[in-house]
Design goal:
This protein is an all-beta fold. The chain has strands spanning 3-7, 10-12, 18-25, 34-39, 46-51, 57-59, 67-72, 77-82, 91-97, 101-102, 106-110. Strands 2, 4, 5, 6, 9, 10 and 11 form a 7-stranded mixed beta sheet that branches. A 4-stranded antiparallel beta sheet has the order 1-3-8-7, with no helix packed on it.
Length: 112
C-alpha cells in the first residue's frame, strides 16, 4: 500500500521559514518525479516544485529563490524548504509521487 505523509506545516510569521516533509511508504521516492503542490479554498491545486529521479529540480516562478525541494533516498522522504514566507503562501501543501499518488496535505499559515 502506497502512502505519502506530509508534515511540518504550521503557523509562521511573514519572513519566516518552514520545512515540509513528505515521508513515503510502498514506493521508492528515488525513482519517481516527486512534486509539491498547494491549494487554497476555491482554487485548483497548483504546482510548486518538482524533483525528478536524477535530482533535477524545477519551481514555479512564484517560488524560485525562496523554496527548495530535496530528497533523502535513505529516509525515503522528500522535503520542501520554504524561506521568506509571505501571507500569500498560506495554503494546504500536498506531496505527489508520479501522477498516481497524493498525500493528505499539511496546512501552512503565514500570518502576523
Amino acid at each position: 500500500q502506497v502512502q505519502l505523509v506530509e508534515s511540518g506545516g504550521g503557523l509562521v510569521q511573514p519572513g519566516g521559514s518552514l520545512r515540509l516533509s513528505c515521508a513515503a511508504s510502498g514506493i521508492p521516492v528515488s525513482i519517481y518525479v516527486m512534486g509539491w503542490y498547494r491549494q487554497t479554498p476555491g482554487r485548483q491545486r497548483e504546482l510548486v516544485a518538482t524533483i525528478d529521479s536524477d535530482g533535477l529540480t524545477s519551481y514555479a516562478d512564484a517560488y524560485k529563490g525562496r523554496f527548495t525541494t530535496s530528497r533523502d533516498n535513505a529516509k525515503n522522504t522528500v522535503y520542501l524548504q520554504m524561506n521568506n514566507l509571505k501571507p500569500e503562501d498560506t495554503a494546504v501543501y500536498y506531496c505527489r509521487a508520479g501522477t498516481a499518488y497524493w498525500g493528505e496535505g499539511t496546512l501552512v499559515t503565514v500570518s502576523s
